[in-house]
Amino acid sequence: MTPELDPVIHAQARLRVVVTLNALPEGDQITFPGLKDLLGMTAGNLSVHLGKLEEAGYVEIVKTHRGRTPATYVALTRRGRLAFEEYTAAIRTLLDTTSAPPSGA
Fold first, then answer.
1. For residue 22, pLDDT beyond 90
2. Hey, what's the signal peptide range on this chain (predicted)?
């Protein structure tokens, strides 16, 4: 049986976002501009993908101020980390299944 891949994470841009956020220690966050620069994405494109991840409960977005300057922070939630673990396990299973020699060969 082929494992199901989480469609929220599976989109290339969202997968890149989740992989990057997962590399941060649990509880850490990154600024929106920092994440945008790391991924080489436009602000609009990143915002759209973060919105989908936030809707799924995979990321938390906190808007605050540093002095008078607005600041937006992004972090992967526990639910997001678990979803990413399940996604990577499904990919590994899929790869193991497809790399196994055909039975009877």
1. yes
2. none
